[in-house]
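User: Sequence for DUF1569 domain-containing protein below. Tokens please.
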Amino acid sequence: MNSIFESHHTNEIIDRIKQLRPDSQPCWGKMNVAQMLAHCSAFQEIAMGNSSSSRSWLGLVIGRFVKPTVYNDKPLPKNMSTIPSIMIVDERDDFDIEKETLIQKIITFQNNGPEKCTTRPHPFFGKLSPEEWGKCIYKHLDHHLKQFGV
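Assistant: Structure tokens for DUF1569 domain-containing protein:
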């Protein structure tokens, strides 16, 4: 399974982000491309420990049981629910800033390595190892880049 802690996977994700354009249209979902970039940046902040989101009641009940179904090579389902605190519904006016912000957060996360990964629980799945966070970040970014056709 791919991990954002492996530089060739990080480079692949960044190359795909650079293919996005301000007028890129989603294949599914409600977010526009700038909102998607901001959403991915917000998730990076959680993984880096710079922000947190409380555990959902559903995550507390079934998160640990569902976690193994996510850590595999199958793509994430379209239109899956998201962490409410990182749902971006406001307009984002500067696509280029959102894109560069996300790229820099990915580079920082990768450069910091597993040892600097948050120890706070994932808002749905609960406690994740640094290895699981690396895979989770890659899979989340891959999901949203596929959403926009790159």
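Helices lie at 7-18, 33-48, 57-70, 95-112, 130-147.
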